[in-house]
Amino acid sequence: MAVLRAAVDAARSAPSVHNTQPWRWRIGDGDTLHLYADRSRQLEVADPDGRLLTESCGAALHHARLALAAAGWQFDVRRVPDGAPPDLLATIALTGRGEPDEHARTLLDAASSRRTDRRPVLDRPVDQAALDTVVAAVVAEDTHLYLLRDDQVVDLTAAMSSADRTEVGEEAHRAEIARWVGGERRDATGIPASAVPERPPQTQVPTRYFGPPGTLAIDERHDVAAVYGILHGDNDTPRAWLRAGEALSAGWLTATAQGLAMLPISAVVEVLPVRMALRRMLSGLGYPYLAIRIGYPDPDAPAPPATPRLAVDDILEG
Fold first, then answer.
1. Which pLDDT belongs to residue 219?
2. Which of 29, 143, 163, 297 could pair with 247 in a Cys bridge, judged by C-beta atoms 3.0 to 4.6 Å apart?
3. What is the pLDDT of residue 135?
C-alpha cells in the first residue's frame, strides 16, 4: 500500500545510535505496518541489551506516525505486543481517514532539517517558553524530561567522563566505534567523518570517543548557555525504551521547528554504574533513557551534512 510505503520512507530520516538504522519494516494484511528490530545492526558492545536499538526504533516509529497523521490517516499503534514474534516492536493499523494533522506536518517538515550537531551552541539563553514546549512534546509520548540545574550539569560531566574512560579502555568498544564511525560510509549507515568534529569541542559535558578526528569545523565557542536534561520514565522495559525513542523524536523535532538544536548523549546510559548514577540524579524516581543538550545553533555556520540513509527497499518487506 502506497501510504504505508510513504510512512516507511519518512521514517528513514529518524535518528539512531551511531546512525545504525536498526529497524526493519513489513507491510502486513489488513492495512498494517509492522516494525521489527534488526539485530544485525545492533551495537553488541555498547548496547548488549538493545536499549539504544529500541529507542532508535521508537524514533523511527514516531516519524512514521507523523507521516500518516500529516496525510490525514487515522491509526492504532500496538507497542511490543504480548505473544508477538521475536523482535516485533510495534504494529500500526490504519483505521480510516480524517483531516490532515497540521502539527504533524510541521514536525515532519522539521525532520528534513534536523541534524545531530556536536558543535558548541550559542552563548544565548534558551527561551523558557521554547523549553516548555519541548518538555510538553516529550511528556505527550509517555516519557519525562528532567532539566538539570547547574550543579547537576557538573555531575553529568563527571558521569560522561567516567563512561568514556570505561568504554575507551575496552578494545572491543574501540573496534566497534571504528566499524561505525569515520570515512565516507559507502554502506549508507554509520557516522561519516564529515559529521565528527575536527577536534574536541569546548562543551560543558564532554563529547564521547569517536576514534580519529573528523572533518567538521568548529570554533572556540563554549556552550555555557546550553541546557542539559535527562529523558526518563517509570519503567525499564523494551516498551518504555520504545516510548523513549518516540519522545526523543517528538522533542527533537519540536526543538528543530523552534530553531533549537538538540543533541542526544547516550554514553551515560551504556555503562551500568554510570546509568545508576544518573538514576540517583533523578532521586531514584525514574529510569534514565538518555541525556540531552539543548541550545541555539550558530545561524552563520553551515549545517552539518546529512548522514547517509538506507533505501526503502533495504528496510521494507512486503
1. 87
2. 143
3. 98
The pLDDT confidence band at residue 1, using thresholds 50, 70 and 90, is confident
Instruction: Name the residue ranges covered by the structural domains of the chain.
Output: 2-112, 128-295
Q: Is the pLDDT of residue 269 over 80?
A: yes
Distance CA 11, CA 239 (A): 19
- Count how many residues are written for the chain: 318
Q: pTM for the full model? A: 0.97
- CATH for 128-295 is 3.40.109.10
- The identity of residue 302, as a single letter, is P
Q: Are strands 23-28 and 316-317 parallel, antiparallel or unpaired?
A: parallel
Alpha-helical runs (H) found in 71-139: 102-111, 128-139
Window from 18-27, 188-197, 215-224 with minimum mean pLDDT = 215-224
Q: Tell me the pLDDT of the chain averaged across its residues.
A: 96
Q: How far apart are CA 60 and CA 70, in angstroms?
A: 15
Q: What would the CATH number be for the domain defined by 2-112?
A: 3.40.109.10
Sequence letter at residue 111: A
Environment class of 151 (CB within 10 Å of its CB; exposed 0-12, middle 13-18, buried 19+) = exposed
Q: Which helix (H) or strand (E) holds 112?
A: none
More confident of the two residues 262 and 185: 262
In CATH terms, are 2-112 and 128-295 the same topology? Answer: yes
Q: What is the pLDDT of residue 131?
A: 97
Q: How far apart are CA 75 and CA 113, in angstroms?
A: 26
